[in-house]
Amino acid sequence: MDETPTDTTHRSEPPQQGDETATLLGFLEYLRATVAWKTEGLSTAQLHERPLPSTMTLGGMLRHLTYVEDHWFCYVLSGQRQCSPWDAVEWEKGPDWDWDSASEAGGDALRTHWAAAVEQSRQRWENFAAEHAHPMDALVARPLRGDMNARWVLTHMVEEYARHCGHADLLREAIDGAVGE
């Protein structure tokens, strides 16, 4: 049986000799698992804590990443209308609505919505890949900024998560002292 190696936090390690798609998806999954690990076990109050001189919270990060998943995999990659609740947000009035509105939600709801968005993104990627002979090279329309290929979308998702995993490391340590890569 060929099992994917995991680390001590049970995150699947990205493949060391995978092709481009497996490598990008492997790193994205590893970073998603890191966000789950950095937010697990925290109460709603802890997820909304601002332990550093910043407006950033782990709860806001979960809500923001829920939006990011939906935006890139639903709206851009799948070419669908903005998913709910993002389609009803007046972004001009509150460009940080995803971060700011998290304080209205409980911790379990934030984690559940994010996990559901991740699962939907996985399914959307599978559907997209099945529809294209060379999915990484397939063009997708990015509203207002022009076409790009799916490779760009996956690379951007890795970058987005990597940046926020660094933030999550600092926030979690400041909240309860938990550390780790």
TrEMBL record:
InterPro entries: DinB/YfiT-like (IPR034660), MST-like (IPR007061). It comes from the Bacteria. This is DinB family protein. The lineage of its organism: Bacteria, Bacillati, Actinomycetota, Actinomycetes, Micrococcales.
